Amino acid sequence: MFFRTLLAALALAVPAWAQPVAVPDCTADVTVAKDLKLDIVYRCRSTAALTFAPDDQEVAAEVSGYRFAKVEPVNGIVEARYRFDLANYARTANSTRAGIKRGEAVLAPIPAWLLEPRGFERLPVIDIRTQLPEGVAFATGLPKVGDAWRLAGTRVGFAGYSAIGRFTLEEIAVPAPGSLRPGAPRQDGVLRLAILDGFSQGGTPDLVDWVRRTAQAEANYWQGFTAKQMLVGLVPMGRPGVGYGRTVSGGGATIMVEVGATVEPRRLFNDWVLVHELIHTGMPFIRGRGTWFMEGAATYIEPIIRARAGWKTEEEVWKEWVDNMPRGVAAFAAGLANASGQQNYWAGATFMLMADIAIRRASDGAKGLEDCFGGALWSGLDAPQTVQVTDYAAACDRAVGGKAMSELVERYYRGAQPVDLATLWKELGVALVGDRIALDDAAPLAKWRKMIVMGPPSRPTPHVKLPWES
To answer: What secondary structure, in 3-state letters, does 360-429 show?
Structure first.
């Protein structure tokens, strides 16, 4: 099944003449057949011979009409043509990482079907143009430039997801990053939601509503959404609830989430995966042993976003942290650069808690971790970027006007120092009594603790009503 929300598409469309159209290094014209065979014509400006390489042998197996040999330029243009059987590739791969087919559509990363042009001295800019038969759609997280989807700043092999075929496509208007800040001009972005076939009858509106309300909750935390444009692909699975989620942001933010074919709204809103993955789209990729930072940020922020939306209580958030943060404690003594497995999530989350406290103390409550992350995003450190931990910490410090994040990075990432969680809980006034959390407002750090989950009283976050509350 395929449909497009016409009004949303018209509201978000920007005339081609208003777009800054630079000349790309390559164009890839993709003609899609109803059986999902792709005819692709590459034309690249180059004075040297180029090759066009598959991402792996599984991709190569579905390519026909091109021998993977060097192609010499003619009048400064290198042209290569090939056919790719996307449906057969996805049936064979049958993986939400590599490519998966449901009904008459495929959700797959762009390198599953687009060959990599090699021989340039720098990363080429590639414009992808599609020709689609009636009822067939193409969606991606890449920015639209004129009539093309532009892949820039990354190798093809790192590019995000694409959806091709007959599927449900919704375009949801979201506030652009930073546009909910006081005094900021209101600008819209777009979240493209691709829902593959296989969900229960009547479940599609519930899925759209879930994604829309979750995007609203994210935007309230970040003071604008996490990306100007994004693709979220939902893939039906056999078991109930929400399954595996993955974010790939090369060229533009994209997310894949597995969801039970039988749609149950209460299960959707009680789950953490979509909120967690959307947080990743508000941050750059942190290279150089930075997994703990990325996963720790998403693990820490996720329950806060849900609490501020009114979907969790403050006590439930603190209980989650008290129960789980001890799983990351050992990583501090060895240095966070050496964190592995679950330590990346819970040592990283513990680090974020300490950073949140440090920022609030240094600013006397005027700033918090949300200002750090939001400020870094607004400064240009969005999902398609790649930076070092120290670069991100510096951007955070500039956003909040201090050195709290950099000092903690120096202490626990560049160095190694144990953390005493028991003392931290006592200073915050957080205690587990039986199976419940007790909060002590007379504790030394209680003033800052009160701002962490629900935000400072001076900046209340609007609740996002759940469907059964509307």
So the answer is: HHHCCCCCCHHHHHHHHHHCCCCCCCEEEHHHHHHHHHHHHCCCHHHHHHHHHHHCCCCCCHHHHHHHHC
